[in-house]
Amino acid sequence: MQTDDRFSEADIVARTLYAEAEGEGLLGIEGIVSVILNRVHAAKEYPGTVWGKTPAEVCLKPFQFMCWTPESSSFERAVHINVSDPFYRLCRRTAGRALKGFVPDTVNGATHYHRKDVSPAWARRLVPVAEFGRLLFYREVF
Q: 18: how many CB neighbours lie within 10 A of its CB?
């Protein structure tokens, strides 16, 4: 019997990637999953950070990934996914590989990112450490 893994840790990470990496290629997806895993590492190293201790906790923590904020336009995209969608399947495979340690940190320890078409206040004083597609990645945003 096959188990239903909707909303398992791998599925939550995959749904986050699916909603957050829309329009990006594999490098963008791997960059975002690296951010998620870097936040897990940072939360263990710096217990005062606001992130969770697991990838699923990091994804679902309020105000961290807009796709999990019910009022955001990407919330429906994260929650109601056609699991046959090729882009979701790519995100799901990438999430599974990342959770098993098979995706290297492609963003040099970054814990934050944003699309180039927005300019969040927290990023104005920082220099990006990586760039993939329309995404800029930053570290040490404490």
A: 25
User: DSSP secondary-structure letter at 68?
Assistant: G
Domain residue ranges in the chain: 9-106
What does the pLDDT look like over 97-106, one tens digit per residue? 999 999 999 9
Tell me which fold the domain 9-106 belongs to. Answer: Arc Repressor Mutant, subunit A (1.10.10)
Which residues, in sequence order, are CB contacts of 61 under 8 Å at separation 6+?
50, 51, 52
Kindly report the CA angle at 112 between 87 and 45, in degrees rounded to 5? 115
The tens digit of pLDDT for each residue in 33-75 reads 999 999 999 988 877 777 888 999 999 998 889 888 888 888 8
The residue count of the chain comes to 142
State the Cα–Cα distance between residues 57 and 105, nearest whole angstrom: 19
Whether 88 and 18 have beta carbons less than 8 Å apart is answered as yes
